[in-house]
Amino acid sequence: DQQVKQNSPSLSVQEGRISILNCDYTNSMFDYFLWYKKYPAEGPTFLISISSIKDKNEDGRFTVFLNKSAKHLSLHIVPSQPGDSAVYFCAARIYNQGGKLIFGQGTELSVKP
Amino acid sequence: DADVTQTPRNRITKTGKRIMLECSQTKGHDRMYWYRQDPGLGLRLIYYSFDVKDINKGEISDGYSVSRQAQAKFSLSLESAIPNQTALYFCATTAQRADTQYFGPGTRLTVL
Protein backbone atom coordinates (compact mmCIF):
# COMPACT_ATOMS: atom_id res chain seq x y z
CA ASP A 1 0.00 0.00 0.00
CA GLN A 2 1.94 2.96 -1.33
CA GLN A 3 0.72 6.04 0.53
CA VAL A 4 3.01 8.37 -1.43
CA LYS A 5 3.36 7.80 -5.15
CA GLN A 6 5.57 9.27 -7.79
CA ASN A 7 4.21 7.77 -10.96
CA SER A 8 6.93 8.98 -13.30
CA PRO A 9 10.19 7.07 -12.81
CA SER A 10 12.04 9.47 -15.08
CA LEU A 11 11.79 12.89 -16.69
CA SER A 12 13.96 14.53 -19.32
CA VAL A 13 14.00 18.31 -19.78
CA GLN A 14 15.99 20.77 -21.83
CA GLU A 15 18.24 23.21 -19.99
CA GLY A 16 16.43 26.49 -19.32
CA ARG A 17 12.97 24.94 -19.46
CA ILE A 18 10.66 24.14 -16.59
CA SER A 19 10.82 20.77 -14.82
CA ILE A 20 7.64 19.60 -13.12
CA LEU A 21 7.82 16.62 -10.79
CA ASN A 22 4.60 15.18 -9.42
CA CYS A 23 3.59 13.32 -6.31
CA ASP A 24 0.25 11.91 -5.16
CA TYR A 25 -0.69 10.80 -1.67
CA THR A 26 -3.56 8.99 -0.04
CA ASN A 27 -3.30 9.67 3.69
CA SER A 28 -5.21 12.69 4.99
CA MET A 29 -3.12 12.63 8.18
CA PHE A 30 -0.02 13.94 6.43
CA ASP A 31 0.74 17.41 7.79
CA TYR A 32 4.00 18.26 6.10
CA PHE A 33 5.53 17.50 2.73
CA LEU A 34 9.15 17.57 1.66
CA TRP A 35 11.21 17.15 -1.45
CA TYR A 36 14.64 15.57 -1.32
CA LYS A 37 17.26 15.46 -4.02
CA LYS A 38 19.71 12.59 -4.38
CA TYR A 39 22.88 12.35 -6.41
CA PRO A 40 24.53 8.97 -7.06
CA ALA A 41 26.68 7.69 -4.18
CA GLU A 42 25.29 10.35 -1.82
CA GLY A 43 22.48 10.48 0.70
CA PRO A 44 19.29 12.43 0.00
CA THR A 45 19.52 16.14 0.75
CA PHE A 46 16.61 18.33 1.74
CA LEU A 47 15.42 20.66 -0.99
CA ILE A 48 12.15 22.35 -0.09
CA SER A 49 9.05 21.70 2.01
CA ILE A 50 5.49 22.82 2.55
CA SER A 51 3.06 22.67 5.42
CA SER A 52 -0.37 21.20 4.78
CA ILE A 53 -1.94 24.55 5.67
CA LYS A 54 -0.29 26.25 2.71
CA ASP A 55 -0.66 25.78 -1.02
CA LYS A 56 2.63 27.16 -2.26
CA ASN A 57 6.20 27.61 -1.11
CA GLU A 58 8.97 29.15 -3.15
CA ASP A 59 12.74 29.10 -2.74
CA GLY A 60 14.71 30.54 -5.61
CA ARG A 61 14.25 28.37 -8.68
CA PHE A 62 12.22 25.81 -6.72
CA THR A 63 8.51 26.05 -6.00
CA VAL A 64 6.34 23.43 -4.38
CA PHE A 65 2.58 23.43 -4.89
CA LEU A 66 0.10 21.55 -2.74
CA ASN A 67 -3.44 20.73 -3.83
CA LYS A 68 -5.05 19.15 -0.78
CA SER A 69 -8.38 18.42 -2.39
CA ALA A 70 -6.62 16.40 -5.08
CA LYS A 71 -4.00 15.05 -2.65
CA HIS A 72 -1.37 16.15 -5.12
CA LEU A 73 2.01 17.78 -4.71
CA SER A 74 4.31 19.13 -7.40
CA LEU A 75 7.81 20.55 -7.57
CA HIS A 76 8.61 23.14 -10.24
CA ILE A 77 12.18 23.96 -11.17
CA VAL A 78 12.59 27.07 -13.30
CA PRO A 79 14.89 27.39 -15.14
CA SER A 80 16.25 23.87 -15.11
CA GLN A 81 20.02 23.45 -15.08
CA PRO A 82 22.20 20.41 -15.85
CA GLY A 83 23.26 20.32 -12.18
CA ASP A 84 19.64 19.63 -11.27
CA SER A 85 19.98 16.16 -12.79
CA ALA A 86 19.34 13.81 -9.87
CA VAL A 87 16.69 11.58 -8.32
CA TYR A 88 13.95 13.55 -6.54
CA PHE A 89 11.98 12.02 -3.71
CA CYS A 90 8.71 13.31 -2.42
CA ALA A 91 8.12 12.62 1.29
CA ALA A 92 5.20 13.14 3.65
CA ARG A 93 5.15 13.38 7.41
CA ILE A 94 2.40 11.75 9.44
CA TYR A 95 0.85 14.06 11.99
CA ASN A 96 1.88 13.38 15.57
CA GLN A 97 4.03 10.33 14.86
CA GLY A 98 7.39 11.69 15.82
CA GLY A 99 8.60 12.94 12.51
CA LYS A 100 8.26 9.69 10.57
CA LEU A 101 8.41 10.23 6.82
CA ILE A 102 6.82 8.19 4.06
CA PHE A 103 8.72 8.42 0.78
CA GLY A 104 7.65 8.10 -2.80
CA GLN A 105 9.53 5.91 -5.25
CA GLY A 106 11.55 8.77 -6.72
CA THR A 107 11.74 10.43 -10.14
CA GLU A 108 15.02 10.63 -11.99
CA LEU A 109 15.37 14.04 -13.63
CA SER A 110 17.76 14.52 -16.50
CA VAL A 111 18.41 18.08 -17.67
CA LYS A 112 20.06 18.15 -21.05
CA PRO A 113 22.30 21.03 -22.17
CA ASP B 1 33.39 17.15 8.22
CA ALA B 2 30.12 15.36 7.51
CA ASP B 3 27.41 15.71 10.13
CA VAL B 4 26.06 12.19 9.59
CA THR B 5 28.52 9.41 8.83
CA GLN B 6 27.94 5.77 7.99
CA THR B 7 30.35 2.87 8.05
CA PRO B 8 31.09 0.87 6.03
CA ARG B 9 30.21 2.60 2.75
CA ASN B 10 30.21 -0.68 0.86
CA ARG B 11 29.95 -4.24 2.09
CA ILE B 12 29.66 -7.60 0.40
CA THR B 13 28.70 -10.52 2.60
CA LYS B 14 27.34 -14.03 2.33
CA THR B 15 23.97 -15.46 3.20
CA GLY B 16 23.68 -16.31 6.89
CA LYS B 17 26.38 -13.92 8.08
CA ARG B 18 25.77 -11.36 10.80
CA ILE B 19 26.52 -7.82 9.79
CA MET B 20 26.38 -4.45 11.50
CA LEU B 21 26.02 -1.06 9.89
CA GLU B 22 26.96 1.94 11.96
CA CYS B 23 25.77 5.53 11.99
CA SER B 24 27.18 8.48 13.88
CA GLN B 25 26.04 12.08 13.97
CA THR B 26 27.52 15.31 15.27
CA LYS B 27 24.37 17.37 14.92
CA GLY B 28 23.23 16.78 18.48
CA HIS B 29 19.88 15.47 17.29
CA ASP B 30 17.67 13.29 19.44
CA ARG B 31 15.99 11.30 16.71
CA MET B 32 17.65 8.80 14.41
CA TYR B 33 16.28 6.61 11.64
CA TRP B 34 17.33 3.71 9.44
CA TYR B 35 15.96 3.38 5.90
CA ARG B 36 16.61 1.08 2.99
CA GLN B 37 16.33 2.08 -0.63
CA ASP B 38 15.41 -0.39 -3.34
CA PRO B 39 14.94 0.41 -7.03
CA GLY B 40 11.36 1.45 -7.73
CA LEU B 41 10.40 1.46 -4.05
CA GLY B 42 11.90 4.64 -2.68
CA LEU B 43 13.09 4.75 0.92
CA ARG B 44 11.37 2.56 3.49
CA LEU B 45 11.71 2.96 7.24
CA ILE B 46 13.29 0.05 9.12
CA TYR B 47 13.67 1.35 12.69
CA TYR B 48 13.69 4.69 14.44
CA SER B 49 14.75 6.01 17.81
CA PHE B 50 13.64 9.13 19.67
CA ASP B 51 16.34 8.80 22.30
CA VAL B 52 18.65 6.18 23.77
CA LYS B 53 15.83 4.37 25.56
CA ASP B 54 13.15 4.74 22.93
CA ILE B 55 13.38 2.45 19.89
CA ASN B 56 10.54 1.70 17.50
CA LYS B 57 9.91 -0.57 14.55
CA GLY B 58 9.30 0.92 11.16
CA GLU B 59 7.39 -0.58 8.27
CA ILE B 60 9.98 -3.26 7.36
CA SER B 61 11.74 -4.26 10.59
CA ASP B 62 11.66 -8.07 10.11
CA GLY B 63 15.17 -9.49 9.86
CA TYR B 64 16.77 -6.40 11.39
CA SER B 65 17.65 -5.18 14.86
CA VAL B 66 19.08 -1.90 16.13
CA SER B 67 21.06 -0.52 19.02
CA ARG B 68 21.21 3.10 20.18
CA GLN B 69 24.50 3.08 22.04
CA ALA B 70 24.52 6.81 22.67
CA GLN B 71 22.67 9.88 21.49
CA ALA B 72 25.09 10.16 18.59
CA LYS B 73 25.25 6.49 17.54
CA PHE B 74 22.63 4.20 16.04
CA SER B 75 23.58 0.79 14.66
CA LEU B 76 21.61 -1.53 12.40
CA SER B 77 22.23 -5.29 12.51
CA LEU B 78 21.28 -8.08 10.18
CA GLU B 79 21.42 -11.18 12.35
CA SER B 80 21.45 -13.62 9.43
CA ALA B 81 21.74 -11.82 6.13
CA ILE B 82 19.71 -12.99 3.14
CA PRO B 83 20.00 -11.94 -0.54
CA ASN B 84 16.82 -9.85 -0.53
CA GLN B 85 18.44 -7.58 2.03
CA THR B 86 20.74 -6.38 -0.73
CA ALA B 87 20.01 -2.65 -0.86
CA LEU B 88 21.24 0.85 -0.09
CA TYR B 89 20.90 1.68 3.60
CA PHE B 90 20.59 5.21 4.89
CA CYS B 91 20.74 6.65 8.35
CA ALA B 92 19.00 9.95 9.08
CA THR B 93 18.68 12.31 12.03
CA THR B 94 16.41 15.11 13.09
CA ALA B 95 15.92 17.29 16.11
CA GLN B 96 12.77 17.07 18.17
CA ARG B 97 10.03 19.24 16.68
CA ALA B 98 12.11 19.81 13.56
CA ASP B 99 10.69 19.23 10.13
CA THR B 100 13.71 18.04 8.17
CA GLN B 101 15.69 14.83 8.34
CA TYR B 102 19.39 14.87 7.48
CA PHE B 103 20.79 11.81 5.77
CA GLY B 104 24.12 10.06 5.82
CA PRO B 105 25.89 9.05 2.60
CA GLY B 106 24.55 5.51 2.66
CA THR B 107 25.91 1.97 2.82
CA ARG B 108 25.66 -0.26 -0.21
CA LEU B 109 25.13 -3.82 1.05
CA THR B 110 25.28 -6.87 -1.15
CA VAL B 111 24.31 -10.27 0.22
CA LEU B 112 25.44 -13.16 -1.95
How would you describe the shape of chain A? Answer: globular
What structural class results from the helix and strand content of chain B? mainly beta
N to C succession of SSEs of chain B: EEEEEEEEEEE
Radius of gyration of chain A: 13 Å
Rg measurement of chain B, Å: 13 Å
Number of beta-strand segments of chain B: 11
| Oligomeric assembly | heterodimer
Q: Name the pair of protein chains with the most residues at their interface, and give those residue counts.
A: A-B, 25 and 26 residues
Low-confidence stretches of chain B: none
Work out the helicity level of chain A: under 10%
Shape of chain B: globular
Distance between the first and last residues' Cα of chain A = 38 Å
**Biggest β-sheet description of chain B:** 7 strands, mixed
- Helix and strand string of chain A, N-terminal first? EEEEEEEEEEE
Low-confidence stretches of chain A: none
Q: Indicate the structural class of chain A.
A: mainly beta
> Helix count of chain A?
0
Task: Give the number of DSSP strands of chain A.
Answer: 11
The mean pLDDT of chain A is 94
Q: Strand percentage of chain A, roughly?
A: over 45%
* Amount of helix of chain B: under 10%
Descriptive overview:
The complex is a heterodimer of chains A (113) and B (112). Chain A is mostly beta strands and 113 residues long. Chain A contains no helices and eleven strands. In chain A, strands 2, 4, 5, 9, 10 and 11 form a six-stranded mixed beta sheet that branches. Chain A has a five-stranded antiparallel beta sheet with strand order 1-3-8-7-6, with no helix packed on it. Chain B has strands spanning 4-7, 10-13, 19-25, 31-38, 42-51, 54-57, 64-70, 73-78, 87-94, 102-103, 107-111. Helix content of chain B is 0%, strand content 58%. By secondary structure, chain B is an all-beta fold. In chain B, the strands form two sheets. In chain B, strands 2, 4, 5, 6, 9, 10 and 11 form a seven-stranded mixed beta sheet that branches. A four-stranded antiparallel beta sheet of chain B has the order 1-3-8-7, with no helix packed on it. The interface between A and B is medium-sized, with 25 and 26 residues.
